[in-house]
Description:
The protein is α/β, with parallel strands linked by helices. The protein has 2 domains: about 5-105, 3-layer Sandwich (Rieske Iron-sulfur Protein); about 120-340, Rossmann fold. The chain has 9 helices and 15 strands. Helix 2 (about 150-165) crosses helix 9. It is elongated, with a radius of gyration of 26 Å. The model has no long low-confidence stretch (mean pLDDT about 95).
Amino acid sequence: MKNDRWVDVGPVKELKKHKLRQIVIGKTSIALIHKDGEFTATSGECNHEKGPLGKGHLKGDYIYCPWHGWHYHRKTGHAEPPYYTACLPRHSVKEKGGRLFVNLRPENRRVQFPHPPHPLSRKVARRPGPIRMAGISATPMSKTLGRYSTSENLLETALNHAKSKLKAETKLIKLRELKFNHCGGFYSIDERACTWPCTFSQIDEKDQLSEVYEALVFWADVILIATPIRWGSASSLYYKMAERLNCIENQLALHDNRLLKNKVAAFIITGGQDNIQSVAGQMLSFFGQLGLFFPQEPYIGHSRGWAAEDMDNNIGYVKTHSELRTEAKHLAERAVTMSRLLLKDVV
Length: 347
Ligand code: FES
């Protein structure tokens, strides 16, 4: 045909050694497949986030994208049902004189998956209104038995104070009540594979970390995070959440897309034993890199020290020492003051 652009991609004998490979010619990427004695070719760019399909793997007749596993038929380019209407561009191939040629003019157009944009992909804009404070409790706990949590109790104290005295809107998120995937480590494949919205938010409608993303990116001006100390670090739930926030930081690094603007973070750290400063150091470093601001004295902590293994006494201490609750209220005040400074032209 008139617009055909046949390109010699190499010796047939050599190309037959690979079931699937990515071939880049100028700006065009091709996924070249060799199966059952025949060559087929599709676009090498995945419909999802342009993952390099030729670097994925072949399972049956489907090419699996190496980034997040979307897959397409090696001959038709169609995705598997129920997404059959989505399709990759296909490319003709021919052998001549022991060489393989691929036609860069695709046989068909790319057809995207028929779904509306993800709610988290909407534009970030602060909704007018009073200062909003989201508390995130990272304490792990049995769902059925429950227990008193020193970090969560101080967080609730701070939130109640922010609501009643500082006239802030507040909400409390308990990570243990959310069902969410741990990070898939897509960044470790390729930084572009770590997407916003997070890939798990896009592909797993049951993933509930959207509640944290909504609060952090769209709703809150102040984030108060409370964690117990576990083996000298913040809790496993905290880290499970933090790793899933990589996609927020990555947007800045990769696309200059700042998702968190004019937001303040502060922390409540408690433990029967010591290491408050180390835990605070990690949290300050991480949330600083996410682009959050901190109030003066951005965290409060409580620990009775290395020798205090008597947890029941630790709980009793927190329950009866009102100065800890006063500190929690002051932390809320400092965070709200900082937020008002940042938002003075907005609120
Ligand atoms: S599945 Fe291919 S880029 Fe996400």
